[in-house]
Write a structure and sequence with these properties.
Elements (H helix, E strand, L loop, with lengths): L4 H4 L1 E4 L3 H20 L8 E6 L1 H5 L6 H9 L12 H11 L1 E4 L3 E4 L2 H4 E3 L11 E7 L5 E11 L2 E4 H7 L17 H11 L3 H12 L5 H21 L14 H14 L5 H18 L3 E4 L8 H12 L5 H21 L4 H4 L5 H15 L4 H13 L17 H20 L9 H14 L12 H4 L4
Parallel strand pairs: 2-5
Antiparallel strand pairs: 1-9, 2-6, 3-4, 6-7, 7-8
Helix pairs in contact: 2-4, 9-14, 10-12, 10-13, 10-14, 11-12, 12-13, 12-18, 13-16, 13-18, 14-16, 16-17, 16-18, 17-18, 17-19
The protein binds iron/sulfur cluster.
The site of iron/sulfur cluster has 13 residues, from helix 18.
Length: 460
């Protein structure tokens, strides 16, 4: 199955795509596999083991609750965010889990859900093993799953058969681009923009009946998230005591509008949009994975900036923005990684910045060469960015980091638009550099909360 633009923008729940969305998908897949294999009658108990980064930061990233929700038959794009905590409370109180909503079995979180600290599965740092046993304690089914970033999940079998990235290609796509150079060459040959090529591929992929309507729905979910984030107040959960700031920033911007005393108003709005989304993400609210949850604020912030200040094309401008961003995101998914457990925050904020920069350049009339340049700048100046969330929570540095990624994307688009598309470092080169840098990065800087700010800033 090939990559669709909708794979880069998934509707889900916060706080993490790899640690919340992916594990919920895995839990749901596991119970569906039990049903398909007609094993449900034999099941008397279920066991969850979390490895690598899922163990190290799983508590702060709500991996445990997401797995329980997935095993209960819930899916990230459909679960009601207001009901999600209640479902987990019910499981904890009753010490029972209703597998797939069809079979209730005993479930003691302390013994049946294990954080395997210091251990990893072989295929990826975000591994999990799910198994069920019968009344005699004999394992009747077991599978390993890997949450490989952005909510993508591969089973053990899928990684054995295909490798992580080779399932991204489809032979009959009209524009089967694998890298940035392909996009430029195909664009020159066809006379099409990057967005037009990505949308032409969607016709063959058949993932959507109406891709434009689906992308506009993605925009609506992003905007709803910004709106919620702007009105809610209070302290974020998890014990760090981080105060929500979007609401007061919003009030401040409106106040300064009246006096005309704000020479950086546009930047304040961008910061607000990004902050609002990521505060919602931190409380487990409804967000769009873009391309991850930790970085979910960057693209909505730049998109909202575009709508507020620049969009003269209406819905077509929104579709062009999101299709361009997704095409750029695919290059990282195909040739590097969007998993912070693999490559650090470069793979989250860095990729989101690159996607947003290219998209903003495109909707301002940038050529494909300028778009590629903007995307390259967006990543080049995020190279080496580590993932070191304090207390394993997607709050510090994550929320502010989204504001930085969004503002940087604006500048990257501007630099590219002020040039002619010719530039020294190409997008493919910077993608390879990001990947190699990520692989060289010490494990403590790859979403394990064992280095950087996570150990140098006091978590109380
Ligand atoms: S530091 Fe970056 S990669 Fe790590 S959790 Fe925060 S946003 Fe995600």
């Amino acid at each position: 199955m090939g990559l669709s633009v909708l794979d880069l923008f998934k509707i889900g729940l916060g706080p993490s795509s790899s640690h919340t969305v992916g594990p919920m998908v895995a839990g749901n897949r596991f119970v569906n596999e039990l049903v398909a294999r007609k094993l449900m009658d034999q099941v008397a108990s279920v066991r969850v083991e979390l490895f690598g980064s899922l163990a190290m930061t799983g508590k702060g990233h709500a991996t445990d609750t997401a797995i329980m929700q997935g095993l209960s038959g819930e899916q990230p794009d459909q679960i009601d965010p207001d009901y999600a905590p209640q479902l987990v409370a019910n499981i904890r109180e009753s010490q029972k889990i209703d597998l797939g909503g069809v079979k209730a079995i005993p479930f003691n979180e302390k013994t049946d859900l294990k954080f395997c600290f210091g251990q990893s599965l072989p295929k990826h740092p975000n591994g999990m093993t799910l198994s069920v046993s019968d009344e005699a304690g004999i394992v009747v089914y077991r599978n390993n799953y890997y949450s490989v970033g952005g909510g993508f999940v591969l089973s053990e079998e899928e990684t054995d058969q295909t490798g992580e990235t080779s399932d991204n290609t489809v032979s009959n796509l009209p524009y089967p681009f694998e890298n940035g150079e392909d996009l430029l060459v195909m664009g020159r040959q066809s006379g099409l923009s990057i967005a037009e090529m990505a949308l032409a591929n969607e016709v063959v992929l058949e993932r959507s009946q109406d891709i434009k309507a689906d992308l506009l729905h993605i925009r609506d979910v992003m905007c709803a998230c910004i709106d919620r984030g702007c009105v809610r107040t209070g302290i974020l959960p998890g014990g760090l005591g981080v105060k929500r700031r979007a609401n007061s920033l919003h009030a401040d911007i409106l106040k300064k509008q009246k006096t005309g005393d704000n020479h950086l108003e546009a930047m304040d709005w961008v910061n607000l949009f990004a902050m609002a989304v990521n505060e919602e993400n931190a409380v487990g609210g409804r967000v769009v994975t873009a391309p991850t949850n930790g970085a979910a604020g960057v693209i909505p912030a730049v998109l909202a900036y575009f709508e507020k200040y620049l969009n003269k094309k209406g819905d077509d401008g929104i579709v062009e923005f999101l299709a361009t961003a997704a095409a750029i995101g695919m290059l990282y998914k195909k040739n590097a990684s969007i998993s912070a457990a693999e490559v650090g925050c470069q793979g989250e904020i860095g990729v989101a910045c690159s996607m947003a920069a290219g998209a903003l350049c495109a909707v301002q009339g940038g050529s494909n060469e300028q778009i590629e340049n903007a995307a390259e700048i967006g990543m080049e100046h995020n190279l080496g960015l580590t993932c070191d969330p304090i207390a394993g929570l997607v709050q510090v540095p994550c929320i502010e980091r989204n504001t930085m990624g969004a503002v940087k994307a604006l500048n990257a688009a501007r630099l590219a638009l002020n040039g002619d598309g010719n530039h020294r470092v190409h997008l493919d080169e910077v993608i390879q550099t990001m990947y190699q840098t990520g692989l060289d990065m010490h494990e403590k800087y790859r979403e394990t909360a064992t280095g950087g700010l996570a150990v140098n800033a006091v978590a109380c």
